[in-house]
Amino acid sequence: xxxxxxxxxxxxxxxxxxxxxxxxxxxxxxxxxxxxxxxxxxxxxxxxxxxxxxxxxxxxxxxxxxxxxxxxxxxxxxxxxxxxxxxxxxxxxxxxxxxxxxxxxxxxxxxxxxxxxxxxxxxxxxxxxxxxxxxxxxxxxxxxxxxxxxxxxxxxxxxxxxxxxxxxxxxxxxxxxxxxxxxxxxxxxxxxxxxxxxxxxxxxxxxxxxxxxxxxxxxxxxxxxxxxxxxxxxxxxxxxxxxxxxxxxxxxxxxxxxxxxxxxxxxxxxxxxxxxxxxxxxxxxxxxxxxxxxxxxxxxxxxxxxxxxxxxxxxxxxxxxxxxxxxxxxxxxxxxxxxxxxxxxxxxxxxxxxxxxxxxxxxxxxxxxxxxxxxxxxxxxxxxxxxxxxxxxxxxxxxxxxxxxxxxxxxxxxxxxxxxxxxxxxxxxxxxxxxxxxxxxxxxxxxxxxxxxxxxx
Length: 457
What we know:
CATH topology of the largest domain: Fumarase C, Chain A, domain 2
CATH superfamily of the largest domain: Fumarase/aspartase (Central domain)
Number of helices: 20
Structural class: mainly alpha
Radius of gyration: 31 Å
Largest sheet: 2 strands, antiparallel
Number of strands: 6
Strand order of the largest sheet: 1-2
CATH architecture of the largest domain: Up-down Bundle
Shape: elongated
């Protein structure tokens, strides 16, 4: 395939340079965006009288034919083409002759690729958002079954206070809800149309850039041609959003890995989403969550690739920017694969409620409630805190729990203790009374669920 700039050069480019320059191996995935962008551009050129209306219509028809042939598999990408833009234009010219050559009027590959990647990533944002929504809904469905499943809550990986399984997993639903917001914000800034910036300085042709934006569903146009071709903020921002999303998935994965262990045994993953050992027949490994945890670093690397690539580029376009696609496409593909696998894994796991409750019964996680019991009877909190700490030490000495400690032991430290202390420090009471908005009480979690469902709607 002849290079489009061949008129300036007296000899062919070295084949190794062609291979080094080529991007079709990874930018071919943008073929639909490239063709739809060209259809809008050709339509606008015809409407503006920049090219003859009949030729504009032929170009549009030819482009639609190319799109249909690629979709059906009839037309295969030429690996010798430099990029998807040159491939489509070359096929169009082969089919239409000189008419096809008019498509590139008032357009550079610089603004063409800037358009294509925005258009393509806009669709990827929508697909990832749909997956995140599905994961949130999966978490909600599980939470609604476990409003009363008591488990220990942790700080510093030490048992701290009783919560419910529903409350715990809804924390991740809230994180993912923020990820949805970030994806929407990122998409909004991405949805700006750069075509018409040309190489870097616009054009003398009377373009109607707003019309092209309208045809392609963009909210607005870029207002500086230099920025229009050299901006990749939206790639960096999307990679940042995806990195935060992966961080949330990784945290969730870490907890699932712990919960699967014999030391916790709070859940059991379905056999379809676990693996075994080549030598230890008893093993059931949470490989999916371990891979998600590992792939999080990969997405972070993609973000750093983009930031490092852009950090010292002068205006306007530089060939360095070709490196944007592999990094952002890898981040997108990795996130989609991770969420798609996480959803059915989470939906099919078995929650071992009895084990959670047994763990909650240990560790003195009702100590704060014991202190609150004294506070409600008039004792200052710091005094109540000290008394309760002494009671915990006494329980450890006697190898018992606060629930089983005799009332005589309580009264050695304060006359305010009475039989009602046992109800006050029961795990169910500890959870049920935390009915403040955002708390773990079943009614509070149910309100949280309904609020998030309303947001999703």
